[in-house]
Amino acid sequence: MAAAGGTEDVPRPAVTGRGRPRKHGTESDCPRKGERTRRRILDAARRKFAEVGYERATIRAIATEADVDKSSVIQYFGSKDELFREAVRWDIPIAELTTDDPAQTVESLVRGMLGAWAADPDSPMAVLLRASMTSEEAAEILRGHITAQGVEPVAATVSGPDARLRAALCSAMMMGIASQRYLLRMPDLAAADTDDILRLVVPVLRGLIDPQETETPSRPEQDED
Q1: Which of 20, 26, 114, 157 has a 20 to 30 Å separation from 179 between CA atoms?
Q2: Could you count the other beta carbons within 10 Å of the beta carbon of residue 225?
């Protein structure tokens, strides 16, 4: 037995966490995992909205499609409306596509849009257009997107009269071509080569956004006899 006041070592409680190897990358992996889950939900939402429309798509069905819990969808997006708005959001890089040559600008716009639809049949633009056919909420979002992303930026490049109307007509023609080619699969448009479409449609669209180039010169007055 040790004498009172001796120096016998007394076992100390182990300090939690000391001496244990740390898991490398745990903190940084969480945001990446969360971002992957978020992207998976968005991809599943686009597929489901494209398949059954906005009204019939449910959070439960989207969660099943994404292989996550329903609570995860609510955690990341809050509601079906917010999820839909996020799933169909797109940006048209007007500034990057606009050049000093109106014909080149039009070709870049059309080629970029057709390329986006061809690359992804469930692109945000395509999903929104499908959903707008049966949902007023989706139609309102589509109107806002087209006005903000298509009409207003293009109208700012038009120097002639009726700038907004010209831009709206240009947007309507491009959306019509894309939807009939990729959604409705109209035979002649679906089978056409992209370069052939551009060759025929670019001059027409250029006439809308660059009216000075296509104005018919006035006839000189003839001398009266």
Answers
A1: 157
A2: 3
Closest CA to 87 of 123, 63, 34: 123
Give SS3 for 213.
helix
Phi-psi region of 103 (alpha: psi -120 to 50; beta: other; left: phi over 0): alpha
108-137 burial, b at 16+ Cβ within 10 Å, e below that, comes to bbbbebbebbeeeebbbbbbbbbbbeebee
Give 13-73 as a DSSP string: PPPTTTTSPP-TTHHHHHHHHHHHHHHHHHHHHHHHHHHHHHHH--HHHHHHHHTS-HHHH
Axis crossing angle, helix 70-77 with helix 59-66, rounded to the nearest 10: 100
Angstrom distance (rounded) from CA 135 to CA 146: 16
One-letter identity of residue 131 = A
Question: Phi and psi at residue 169, in whole multiples of 5°?
Answer: -65, -40
Q: How many CA atoms lie within 13 A of 52 on its CB side?
A: 11
- Amino acid 211 reads P
Judge if pTM exceeds 0.85.
no
CB within 8 A of 152, min separation 6: which ones?
164, 167
> pLDDT by residue (tens digit) across 111-147?
888 888 887 878 888 899 889 888 998 999 999 988 9
pLDDT in tens, 20-46: 444 444 444 566 888 999 999 999 999
Q: Of 72, 46, 48, whose CA–CA distance to 58 is shortest?
A: 48
